[in-house]
Structures are given as C-alpha cells and as structure tokens.
Amino acid sequence: MKLSHLPRQCKAAALKYRQLELEINHTISSICSPFCRPCKGDCCKAEICVESVSSYWLRLVRAVGDHKPVQFDEIRGWLAPNGCRISAGRPPLCYEFLCDKIFENSPPGSFSRSLKDISRLLSMASKNALGNRHLVSLSSKAISTRLNCKKLEARIAAAAESFKRYKKDLICAPTTR
Q1: pTM of the full predicted structure?
Q2: Which residue has the higher pLDDT, 43 or 59?
C-alpha cells in the first residue's frame, strides 16, 4: 500500500491508532487466551475478518507498522491454529466480542466493566469519524481529503488515556474467581 498521497497528520493518526490497538490487543489477549485457545476460534469468522481487507483504514493501520504481509484465507480469515495472524488492523468488532465464559470466570465489578470498556475503545475512537460514518467505512479519498485527522488523533489520544485508567482496574483485580 502506498502511503505517499496521505497527509502527514493522517499517517500520524494511523500510527497512534495502531499503537493503541496493539496495547488493547495485548491486554485482551492475555486475559482471554485461556478461554479462547480451547475453543479453536469458533467465534472467529472469515466474514468478520473481511472488513480488515475491505476497509482502507484497517489496511492503512497494517501498512504504517512493521506488519509482515500475510495471505488472507477466504475460509478461515486471519485465524491460524495459534490465534489471529494479524495484531493490528483488525475489525473493532474482534475486540468487542467477549464470550460469556470470560465473564463467568472473571471477578465481578470493576474488572468486568473495565474489560468491556477496553474492548469498545477502538470503536468509540472511530465512531462518527466523518459525519455519522465510522472510520473503517471510509474510502481512501475520504480519509486523505475529508477526514479531520487532527481531530481523529485527539480522539485516539483520549481513548489511550481511558485505556490507561481501565487497565489499572484489570491489574488490581485477579483474573479468575
């Protein structure tokens, strides 16, 4: 993917989004992997993964990092035996889905609330990016010419601050009952 046509501010926003996504991914994966591994990715569907291929923004997030190109599988999406093969540029829905097993084995209260809040941060930062359109639905032209990338950077920064607050609740509570 060529990035030369993008305004500097949009590249910077994509890098900040990527960094936040990597932190969210690491946090959610560390909590959820004991529950997700035995399931073999039954909740992971190629039709959800397709958004990461069709969305210019999500492709951009992968392109601005050191992501090694991986071939998308039409049947399994990005899923491999050891989990998702991409660490950034995933559809926000991937983080929002937290199955009941995770909450059944997590302490109630602030831990569960914080985990849910963290899972929604990327969607919240991306919501109404251009009018009422979500960031992942925008075309390359809309991102490079119409998107207020400075405003987007501010929203990502606010989400990153929220992440730090929520993560404190996760650290302070045990992960299982």
Answers
A1: 0.91
A2: 59
